[in-house]
Design brief:
The protein is an all-alpha fold. It is built from one helix and no strands. Helices cover 29% and strands 0% of the residues.
Length: 24
């Protein structure tokens, strides 16, 4: 979850909850 172009972090966080770039 670091090489993503423009993925909806909000959705990823809610599904994967990966605190990688949720603030970015």
């Amino acid at each position: 979850t670091s090489s993503a172009p423009h993925v909806p972090w909000k959705t990823l966080l809610r599904s994967s909850r990966a605190p990688d770039q949720m603030d970015s």
